[in-house]
Amino acid sequence: MKLRAAKKPMRRNTQAWKAGKMTRPERVILFGIDGLRPDMVTEASMPNLTALRSCGVWCGNHRTVFPSETRGALTALATGTQPAVNGVLGNQFHARGGHMGQTFTHAVQHWRTADAMLPGGMVNAPGLAEILAREGRSLAVVTSSGQGSLAALNWKGAIHGQTGFNVRHPQFSFPAGAAAAIRERHGIPLDGCAEGSEGKAVETFIDTIWPDVRPDVSIIWLTEADSAAHVHGLGAEEHLAAMRRCDQALGRLVAWRDALPEREEISLMVTSDHGHVTISDHISVGSVLVAAGFNADDTFEGGADILVGAGRAAGLWFRKPELSLMQDVFDCLGEQPWFGGGFSTPADPTSHLGQVEGTLSLNLIGVGHRRAPDLYINLAGNNGSNRNGIAGGAWCDVSNYNIAVGGGTHGGLHRLELASVLLAEGPRFATGAISHLPTGICDLAPTILHLLGCELPRSASGRPLTEIMRGGAPSEEPCLHEYMASRGGSATYLTVSRFLAVNYLGEAWSAVERSREAARTDEAA
User: Fold this and answer.
1) pLDDT band per the 50, 70, 90 thresholds, residue 519
2) DSSP character at residue 100
3) How would you classify the pairing of strands 163-166 and 266-271?
4) Spatial separation of the C-alpha atoms in residues 458 and 473, rounded to whole Å
5) Buried b vs exposed e over 491-505: b needs ≥16 C-beta within 10 Å?
6) Cβ-based neighbours of 36, under 8 Å, separated by 6 or more
7) Would you give the DSSP letter of residue 364?
8) Are the C-beta atoms of residues 288 and 278 closer than 8 Å to each other?
């Protein structure tokens, strides 16, 4: 059985190419490795990715969004927008006007339920599936991730006639006939691949989806390195082995692409959605608040005054956002040894300060959406090394997630969890170059659309990365801004780079946190 793409209007670029008005139509393949930290890419751990660097542009200052969690980051990737625009604030969040609890994103049904329930739907900005369909273009997404990753990358793709396949959860793939054909052709069980999913994802793409669909834009997303980092810790042999398997899958993809007659028409981008740090200690923010006398829970259903969303950064939603109560809560948490900075709704739209004294504005970290918490508390990080010699650690409120101390984590504002991979290689990109200019995950969709000659939606927060293309040069220098808010003995600091009218997060920390870090350094010396 041959897969059949949905009928679409004639591509405008193909028409123009035939008329001799422009270069040949281009195709883009985006290869994603979930949770890959750029400083861990070495010739020993990832020889294929390292070799590819000499053929393209390595972006050495690439950043993800906050919260630095997968489904929020992938929504930012696919829409080219910050969470402040698209409304998906990490892996879970409370949405006012929805229900009394939290909106989750790891299952397809979570997305569908939220889309029906939340004002404006689940995603408040158009994604690649919709944008490309309007342009008469095709998108194919293949993942080896959880259900939610395919939903984020190819939101409503089935409605727009696009293709999506998940080798771990094939029952949620589309179109239905295509999914059945892929399972049969590639020997994928009904309940998905338990092992070898990295290679199987690439196999299904190059052997079936590419020849049958010929997508204009393709995304292959692998989750195994991220999962291994959570369970075994950064730099553990199991983590390195997962990185090598992802690299082998990339090597197979590159070898296949290079053997195609049309290889000069295909751009390849390799990226990740976030970095990782090591959990140095656990904390329950909700338990601390309850012990201090506040009525806090992880839902409003039991009558709590404060809903606490756990993670590397704790989100606090107040049933009645009374400033005096929010200030009391912040003052309590600002005294904790794990306090790493606070953020709240801006005091006014132009201010960098939050309305809660001692906090910075939510707008600075790109989450000024109606679903945003009233308070975000970033948990403290450090620059120490784990047992495998990998730098970067942090406190984490893991809630119901079974991630032990020593395991990998992400979601906050440590520079090593915001740092992400981006390599661009193809006919339009420079060769053998390293760019230290700021780039971000919100720039990927605009860059892809630019390569295809498609119109950029007005909702976009990111920009096309023209400076890394052949002959490209930036028209200005980036500016680094440092913001500070203080109250009593605590202070929150944040660095943000601004380049070509786009903001890129640097890191956040607290004054107390940095003084402790300096003291440990002096003691060691």
Assistant:
1) very low
2) S
3) unpaired
4) 24
5) bbbbbbbebbebbbb
6) 225, 226, 243, 246, 272, 275, 420, 421
7) G
8) no
Give the model's pLDDT for residue 220.
98
Buried b or exposed e, range 280-299, using 16+ CB within 10 angstroms:
beebebbebbbeeebebbbe
Query: DSSP string spanning 327-358?
Result: HHHHHHHHTSTTEEEEEESBSSTT-SBBSSTT
pTM of the model: 0.94
- As beta bridge partners, residue 319 has none
User: CA-CA distance, 251 to 46, in Å (whole number)?
Assistant: 9
Please name the residue that has the structure tokens 């997404």: 141
Q: What are the beta bridge partners of residue 156?
A: none
pLDDT in tens, 367-395: 999 999 999 999 999 999 999 999 999 99
Q: What angle do CA 297, 298, 304 make, to 5 degrees?
A: 35
End-to-end CA distance of the chain: 68
Q: From CA 73, how far away is CA 383, in angstroms rounded? A: 24
Using a 10 angstrom Cβ sphere, with 0-12 exposed, 13-18 middle and 19 or more buried, the burial of residue 200 is buried
What whole-number distance in Å separates Cα of residue 224 and Cα of residue 377?
29
Helices (H), 314-443: 323-334, 415-418
Helix (H) or strand (E) holding 111: helix 108-117
List, in order, residues 6 or more apart from 522 with CB less than 8 Å away.
Answer: none
51 burial type by CB count under 10 A (0-12 exposed, 13-18 middle, 19+ buried) = middle
What is the percent of the chain where pLDDT is above 90? 88
Instruction: Name the token pair of 375.
Output: 């308070």
| Long-range pairs of 381-384 with CB within 8 A, sequence gap ≥ 24 | 381/277, 381/340, 381/412, 381/413, 381/414, 381/509, 381/513, 382/280, 382/513, 382/517, 382/520, 383/517, 384/280, 384/520
In this structure, what are the phi and psi dihedrals at residue 381, rounded to the nearest 5 degrees?
A: -120, 175
The helix or strand, by DSSP H or E, that contains position 128, with its residue range, turns out to be: helix 128-134
- The structure tokens listed for 369 are 């959406």
Tens of pLDDT, residues 343-355? 999 989 899 999 9
What stretches of 434-488 show up as alpha helix (H) in DSSP? 444-452
